[in-house]
Design brief:
The protein is mainly alpha-helical. It contains 11 helices and 4 strands, in the order αβββαααααβααααα.
């Protein structure tokens, strides 16, 4: 009787992941929201480039690096972190992205590599300088991607009797589950707002690693906590949780949190502050831009 009453109070979620399917056209919510995240991020970063006096034409190159790195990194991350035996035995399956399977940890690693390669070709945009700014729109893009997961009725949580539980009818669920996609999306929006506020307080004079460190700590810290109510992605993780108390997503989050803490603490050193001041003043003179 109690389960029946909980089901009545829950949200019945029966949204098709497809927006339109016609002949060879298959438009899905996930793809649309994924693209929207990058488009919105592009406009936000273009504003940051204007503040910094950087050439707007560099944004198209940067966006190309980011999109390719995110897709490749996320796909390889899922294949190698969550089911390496299967994918290494069936390597062609790695390319079948339409079947699903992307990992945010792999996407982050891919982005870090791509941004390093980009910064090497653009000396006026050093690696840490770039990371401190690019993570701001990335946090918001992450929220759009999680909304895409919601539209796909995937990576949700365990059973709950909370009034905002979702019954994912597309997957044949009959009891309310934690909408962990919304938990993550909401936390990412808050992180975006906080990072943007932090940037606008210092703008050109952000100490190297300050915002990047906060991004890693906050985003992967939120991910670590939310994983406690999220279903495991692979069956073998059940034994991992029973043995160690955490799943693969949490284990992969720990190094990012540690690295973020190191960068955040380092940003308060006099050296990091001096680097930011010298770089800002040098390029202000070079670009002929007034201080903001």
């Amino acid at each position: 009787m109690l389960d029946f009453l909980n089901a009545l109070a829950a949200i019945s979620w029966d949204v098709s992941p497809e927006i339109l399917q016609w002949k060879f056209i298959n438009l899905r919510w996930y793809g649309l929201l994924f693209a929207t995240g990058f488009i919105v991020g592009y406009f936000i970063f273009s504003k940051i480039y204007k503040i910094e006096g950087k050439p707007q034409e560099d944004l198209e190159t940067l966006l190309t690096y980011m999109v390719i790195a995110t897709v490749i990194g996320s796909r390889l991350g899922h294949c190698l972190f969550y089911d390496p035996v299967y994918y290494l035995s069936n390597p062609l399956e790695i390319f079948k992205i339409w079947k699903g399977g992307l990992a945010s940890h792999g996407g982050t690693i891919g982005l870090l590599i791509a941004l390093f390669l980009y910064s090497r070709r653009h000396p006026d945009q050093p690696y840490l300088w770039l990371l401190d700014r690019i993570v701001i729109p990335i946090a918001l893009a992450g929220a759009f991607i999680r909304l895409g997961n919601l539209m796909n009725s995937e990576i949700y949580g365990g059973a709950t009797d909370l009034p905002w539980g979702f019954i994912f009818l597309q997957n044949g669920e009959t009891i309310p589950k934690h909408p962990t996609q919304l938990y993550e999306a909401g936390s990412y929006v808050l992180i975006f707002l906080y990072l943007m506020f932090s940037y606008l307080q210092m703008k050109r004079y952000v100490p190297r690693g300050r915002i990047f460190g906060q991004f890693l700590m906050l985003l992967f810290g939120a991910r670590f906590l939310i994983e406690f109510v999220k279903n495991v992605q692979e069956a073998w993780e059940i034994d991992m949780v029973a043995t160690y108390g955490i799943n693969m997503g949490q284990l992969l989050s720990i190094p990012f949190i540690v690295v973020g803490t190191v960068f955040f603490v380092r940003s308060f050193s006099s050296k990091a502050r001096q680097e930011a001041i010298e770089f800002a003043e040098k390029h202000q003179k070079k670009e002929g831009v007034k201080k903001v």
